[in-house]
Amino acid sequence: MKALKSYYAVIFSSTQNKNIEGYAEMAEKMETLAKQQKGFIGIESARNEIGITVSYWETLEAIKNWKQQSEHLQAQLKGRQDWYSWYHVRICKVEREYEFLQQQESV
Amino acid sequence: MKALKSYYAVIFSSTQNKNIEGYAEMAEKMETLAKQQKGFIGIESARNEIGITVSYWETLEAIKNWKQQSEHLQAQLKGRQDWYSWYHVRICKVEREYEFLQQQESV
């Protein structure tokens, strides 16, 4: 992930319906597409009872453009119609961060 | 979750080692403890290859206090020594949000 002075995170929390036919393919397609957008930095995703996807963006404009991207709009509609029972989107400014990386043990 | 004018999110992304003995108990204990902290709003968590935990707080001071809480400090140390191969913490200001809730179908 690129080091940037200031950037943004979109936290997408969701619960899904029982029948999520077509969801996995669409999720993969959207991730590929997101990565091609201007201002995209990175994406992280995990799901158990709840799903959390966090995508990182250089500017608020990049987030807005991605939200309005035509194929993404179709995916959002399909998501509300068929796949998600609930979701919550939070657009956040990353104010501080730190990282830990375990030292590799010598072999 | 309470409706608030402005609040903060702590995004904790991580990968774990193979041996995570004691982790589940500690994670549960820390979640219980976090919920008792002043300024705590909510917490969401999911894990597959990567784990993402997002906790929500009323102020940056509440986040700082939780980071320095004594039992939590011990848990963080244990996490770096034994459980986590990597983690990344981002402290974010929630700037905008929206929510979707599926309409219940009539029975």
Automatic annotation (TrEMBL), chains A, B:
Pfam families: ABM (PF03992). InterPro entries: ABM_dom, Dimeric_a/b-barrel, Jasmonate_Hydroxylase-like. Its EC number is 1.14.-.-. One of its GO terms (molecular function) is monooxygenase activity. Keywords: Monooxygenase, Oxidoreductase. Residues 7-76 form the ABM domain. It comes from the Bacteria. This is Antibiotic biosynthesis monooxygenase family protein. It comes from Lacinutrix gracilariae.
